[in-house]
Specification:
Chains A, B, C: InterPro entries: Amidohydro-rel, Metal_Hydrolase. Three copies of one chain form a homotrimer. Chain A is α/β, with parallel strands linked by helices and 374 residues long. Chain A is built from 16 helices and eight strands. At the A-B interface, helix 11, helix 12 and helix 16 of A face helix 2 of B.
C-alpha cells in the first residue's frame, strides 16, 4: 500500500537540460563545486549506490551496473526521454520547486510536464532581493520594492525559503531588525555591491525573513550541516530554537530543511512549537541504505502530523527518483516493522504513512488532494 | 525473566485525582501547556501510540482502540480504580517521587497505596526556595532558612532535583558563588518578587545546587532539550561537563535526567566521572517503539553500573505504565539480541538487566531490596 | 571474505611489558587514571564484555569466562606469549603506532615482531616539542630546533598526531599564529616550565600544527569527547570545521580521530572537504556489541574512500584484538545486510570493505600492499 502512495515532494529543484558526461554527473552526485579527493569518487557514496540501485532498471539496465554503462544508455535515450522515464516512476503528484538556484535548471512548468504531475513555486528570498537591488535607485526605493516583491511573490508561490539560517547563523537573532538598522544596511549594501552582487548582510537577511513571515506563507529554513560554506556553528540547533521562539504565535509556519545530523533536534522542535514542521528530504535521500534508520530517529519525538516528505533533489532526475524510492522503502521498513511487533496498529501505520507522504504537506500549503479537494 | 523483574522508578511524579476528558488527557500526553498544531493531535506521537498499545488491555479493552473508547472505559471504572489497575501492572516496587510540581498531583503516600509499592520523596530545590522566601524576613533570614530547609529535607528525602540546568545553563558555572554575590542576589530577589514568585536568579540557583551538594544526597539534574522554555544552548552537554568536573571528588553523586537527544554524551560522562549517573526515563518513555534503539545507544559507552531506570511519568498513570513496559521491552530486545549473537553471555545479560532495573538505584539511594536488605 | 581481509591498523599504541593483576588490567580497560565508581567495575562495559568474548578462546579458555580465570591463564602463558597469540589473531598486516604516550609501552619494532607484521611510526607533536624544549637554550634556539625536529621526524614517520584539538579547542583557530606571537609564547613557556614540563600553550600548539602541515604528512587530530580533561566545548565539531576550512587546498590531509559521539559530523566533513579523512577506531572498539550500529551511522554521509580502520588500542593486546574483531563483525553485518536487501551489490560491498580495511590507508600513507606494490 505504501508502494502505491502518492507523494507531495515539498522541496526540490529542477533538472539540467543538457546531456551529461561521467564527470559532470559525478559532481552533481556530490552536490559539490569541487572534485572528489584523489583516488576517490562520489559514486562511492550512499547516494551513488542508491542511484545505481534504482535508476538503471528504469532505463532498461541491470541494477548496480557500472556508471559508464548507465550514462551511455542515458545519452542514447536523450536527456528529455530519460528525464521523463525517471520522473514518472516516482509517484509524486505535486512538486514544490525552489526556483532560486543559479544555473540552467528546468522550472515548475517543465517539471510538471516531464513528471506528469502538478508543480508549484517556492520563492527563494536571497535571489529575489538581489534582482530587486539590481533594479533599485536608492535605499527607500530598494526597501519599498523589496516589500512589494515579497508581497507579489506570495500571491502565486506556496512558500518562501531562505538559506540565511545556514550561511549567517547570527542572522537568526530572534527579533526583527529596527528600521534604522535596515536602512543603514541597505545603504551599505547598495554602495558596495555590483550588479548581481550576492546578499550576505545579516541585517538585510533578517529583514527579509521578517518580510516573508508577514506574508503568512510557510517559511522554509535551510538548517543542518550540508553546506561547506556555512560558518562554524551555523548548524547549531540552538540558533533555530531561538528563531522558533521569536516567531511562535505569529500565525506563520516554519519548515526546517536539512537538519541532519541534528534531525533529532529538529524533530524535538516540532513537538515543542505548534508552528514548526520538519522536512525529511536530504536526511533520507543522501543516506541511501541507511534511510530507514534515520527516518526512525526522526519519528522518535516528532508528532506525526509535523513531518513532510521531500527529495531535496536538484539537477539530476535520478535524485528525484532516489528521494522517492528511498523514502518509500524506509517507510515500509520502519512502520511495517512496528506493525509486525504489535507496537502500532496497521490502520494507524497506513494513516501516518499517508500524512507524511502527502497529507501534512497538503494541509500546510493548502494544496488540493488531486481530486479537487483542498 | 526480564518480564518479571522488579523495578525502582527513580524519577516520577504523582497522578491527577480528577476524571479527564479527551482534551485534558491529550494535553498531558504532550506534556505541554499549549494545544497541538491545527489538524494534528498529541495522540499521533510515539507516546500516544504506546499508551494505546499498553493501557487498553489493562482496563479490559483491545490494544490500539480509539482514544474516546479508552477514556469512556476509564471514566466508567473511575479515576481511582483505573489508576490502581494501571499502576499495579508496572512491576515497580519503589517509586521515587518528585513532589515539587505545581498542580494537584498525588504524593508519595498515595502513589504507594495505589501501586501497592514503596515510595520515597525527591525534593525539588526551586519550590523549596520559593516557600522559604515567602516566609522569610530579610536576606540573612532567607539564607539561613534556606540552608536549614535543605538540611531538614535531606533527613527524609532520597535525593534533590533541580531544573536549573535546563532553564539557566550559565547557572551551571563550575564554582559555588561567593557569599557576597549570594547576599546581593538574595536581596534583589526579595525586593522584586511577590508571594509565590519563581526563583530564576542564576546566582541563587547555583547557591542552591551547592547547598544540596553539601547534603551528600544524590543530586538529579534536568538536562536535555525537552523543555521549550529552555534558553538556547541550555541543553549543551558542555555545560554539564563543566559542572561534573567541578563537583568531582566531593562525595556527592550526580544523576543526569532527560539528556535526550544528548543521551550519548550523558552516557559518556558516566564513563569519565565516577560520581555521574544517567537516567533512562524520558529517553525511552517518550520514544515508544524506538525505545530499544535509544537504550542501545546509551549502552555504548556507559558502564552498566551507572544507568538507572525511571518512567519520568507525571499526571497520568498511563505514563507510568508506558515507562515500565517500554523499558522492559527494550531491555529484552537489546540484551536478548546480544545474547543471541553470542556477544554477551546470558548470565551477564541477566545481571546487567537487574542492575539497571533496580540494583544500581538501590545502591545509589541506599534503598533496601524489599527483603529488608540494604 | 571479510573474515580473511588483511587490515592496516592506522592508529594504535604499544602494549605493556609487565604481568598484570586484575586491578591494573581493569584500569586499562577503562582507559582512565582513576578507579571505577564504588560498586561498579570497568569489566561491566562494552569493552569489558568484548574482551571476555573474543580473547579467552585465543588463550584456550571459554568465551565469557570470569576475568580472574582469564588473567590467571594470561600469567601462566606469560606476557610475551599471550601477547604474541593475541596480536597474531588480528589479521593486521601493518600497524601505525603513536609512540608519544608516556609509560612503558612497546615500540613499533616490538609490535611488528610480536604481531608478525609491519609497523611504522606516528609522531606525536606535543612530546616532541617537550623533548626539544628540554635541550634548547633560548627562544630562537627552541624555534629553530622545533622546525628541524618536525622536518627530521617527517623523513621516517608516516604521520603526525596531536591532541591539541581536544585539550585546547581554541588552539584550532584557523590561521597560523604570527611570528611575534610564537616568539612571545615560546619565551613565556621556557620561563615557566621545568624539565619535562608539558606543552599546553595554545599559540605554540597552533604553531606546531602548522609546522606539521608544512611537512606534507597526514596530520591526525584527536577530536571527540573521550578525554575527561578536555575543556568544555573541546569536542565541538564547529572547531574542527573551522580548522578544516583553513587547511583546505594546502596539499596536506587531515585524519579525524575519535570523533564519537560526533562521528556523523566527522563523516559529513569527509564529504565536504577533499583533504579530510575519518578514523573508525574508538567509535567501534569501545562500543562492542554496538559497533555495527555506529559503523552504519558513519557510512551515511562519508564517501567510502575517506574512512580508515584502526583499533586505537593501547597497553593491552586484548584491545588490539577487540578493535580488529569488532570491526570485522560490524563490517560483515552492515555491508552483508545491505547486500541481502539488494541495496548494494556484492562486488561493491567487497570493494568497499577492502578500501576501509586497508586500501584507503595504503593510499593515504603511501604504504605498500604487502606484495611490494605502493
Amino acid at each position: 500500500m505504501i508502494e502505491s502512495l502518492s507523494l507531495v515532494d515539498q522541496y526540490c529543484h529542477g533538472v539540467l537540460r543538457t546531456e551529461l558526461g561521467l564527470g559532470t554527473f559525478e559532481a552533481q552526485l556530490g552536490g559539490r563545486v569541487g572534485p572528489a579527493a584523489p583516488g576517490t569518487t562520489f559514486f562511492d557514496t550512499q547516494t551513488g549506490f542508491a542511484v545505481r540501485r534504482w535508476c538503471p532498471p528504469l532505463l532498461g539496465l541491470e541494477a548496480h551496473c557500472p556508471p559508464a554503462h548507465y550514462l551511455a544508455r542515458r545519452r542514447e535515450l536523450g536527456v528529455l526521454e530519460s528525464g521523463r522515464r525517471l520522473l514518472r516512476s516516482t509517484g509524486v503528484t505535486t512538486y514544490l520547486v525552489d526556483t532560486g538556484l543559479p544555473g540552467e535548471l528546468t522550472g515548475p512548468g517543465e517539471i510538471a510536464a516531464a513528471g506528469a504531475a502538478d508543480a508549484r513555486e517556492i520563492v527563494r528570498l536571497e535571489p529575489l532581493a538581489e534582482r530587486v537591488a539590481d533594479a533599485s535607485c536608492g535605499v527607500a526605493d530598494l526597501l519599498s520594492r523589496l516589500a512589494e516583491s515579497v508581497h507579489d511573490a506570495a500571491a502565486t508561490a506556496v512558500a518562501f525559503t531562505s538559506v540565511a539560517g545556514v550561511r549567517h547563523g547570527p542572522a537568526l537573532a530572534p527579533e526583527p531588525p529596527a528600521h534604522a538598522e535596515v536602512r543603514a544596511a541597505a545603504g551599505h549594501w547598495l554602495t558596495v555591491r555590483g550588479p548581481g552582487g550576492p546578499l550576505d548582510d545579516p541585517v538585510l537577511l533578517r529583514h527579509l525573513l521578517w518580510l516573508a513571515l508577514g506574508s503568512g506563507l510557510p517559511l522554509q529554513l535551510h538548517t543542518g550541516a550540508r553546506d561547506a560554506r556555512a560558518p562554524a556553528g551555523g548548524a547549531d540547533p540552538a540558533l533555530v530554537t531561538a528563531f522558533a521562539s521569536a516567531t511562535a504565535g505569529l500565525g506563520t509556519d516554519l519548515v526546517l530543511l536539512g537538519a541532519y545530523p541534528y534531525h533529532r533536534h529538529a524533530a524535538h522542535l516540532t513537538s515543542v512549537f505548534p508552528h514548526v514542521y520538519a522536512d525529511l528530504g536530504p536526511a533520507l535521500a543522501h543516506t541511501g541504505a541507511r534511510a530507514a534508520a534515520v527516518l526512525a530517529e526522526i519519528l522518535e519525538l516528532a508528532p506525526f502530523g509535523k513531518l513532510l516528505f521531500s527529495s531535496g533533489a536538484r539537477a539530476l532526475p535520478e535524485l528525484h527518483v532516489v528521494g522517492a524510492r528511498v523514502f518509500r522503502e524506509a517507510l515500509v521498513r520502519v512502520l511495517g516493522g512496528w506493525v509486525a511487533d504489535g507496537a502500532w496498529s496497521l490502520t494507524d501505520a497506513r494513516r501516518v504513512a499517508e500524512m507524511i507522504a502527502a497529507g501534512n504537506a497538503r494541509r500546510l500549503y493548502g494544496l488540493s488532494d488531486g481530486r479537487g479537494q483542498p
